[in-house]
Amino acid sequence: MPGLAAIFLIAVFVIVYEVRMLNHAEKLANQIDSGRISLADAMPAYQTLAAHSLFSLPLYPARRSLRNRYTAEADRVIADYREASDSTPVTMKDWKRAREALASAMSISPDDKTRGKYSLINGFLALRTNLKLSRNDFEESARLLPDSPDPHLGLAMVQMSQNNLDQAEEELRKAERNGFKAGRREQRSLADGYRIRGERWLAEANRARGIAQMQDALKHADSDLAHAQDLYNSVAPFLNGVQLAERMSLERDRAAKSLAEARQAIPDPTSASDGASK
Hints:
Layout: H1 2-34, H2 39-52, H3 60-83, H4 92-108, H5 112-126, H6 131-144, H7 150-161, H8 165-177, H9 184-207, H10 211-235, H11 241-264, H12 269-277
Helix pairs in contact: 1-2, 1-3, 2-3, 3-4, 4-5, 5-6, 6-7, 7-8, 9-10, 10-11
């Protein structure tokens, strides 16, 4: 009997103690949700509760609110980039702040959705310096966030950087199927890619040793430059779209003139045979 009484008293103490922890957690959650406490102060307050609580369940209200606040910080950066506002560009500092917020969210309550966003942000941070790492991060994000357009938008940027333009457009189509609408940033980046590839074809045409090789290179050049011209027109009058579209038109005209001159320079086999018969 004394043993049962002791167990009963311990159980009552634990229940009362954890109910108090739940009340503290709910109070902290209300402060977090209302914005009366900053994230810088909310995390230490949560950690103090966690250090004194015997179980994790009573802390769920504070844990949920804190995770949601951290996730919202990152979501704002991701949304700003997706919407591609010219007046509020997303900087490396913004991406780093978003990554720190998601790291804090995962330290509280990791899940696939948060990990997917974390990989997404790592992909954008690596985009300028390590395309292989960036691609791996975006692919991991696409696996964890199958309904999100953002990983495919990132993969499109990787493909553009590697001049894989057909693959880039396919990734943009996947992003569109998940609700994304390509904007001026994507159109301009694609246009630049087609312009660069078209100009490479022009350079190859200039190095061609025969009319067939030259004609093939100029055919590819005209196709890419025409695509670039259309894309530049789609962003006009922004991002120098008008000027660049006119430049593409002039380059296509020069390419067509070069091909016509090359064809005229080829001897006419019919007139050569007529001269021989005379």
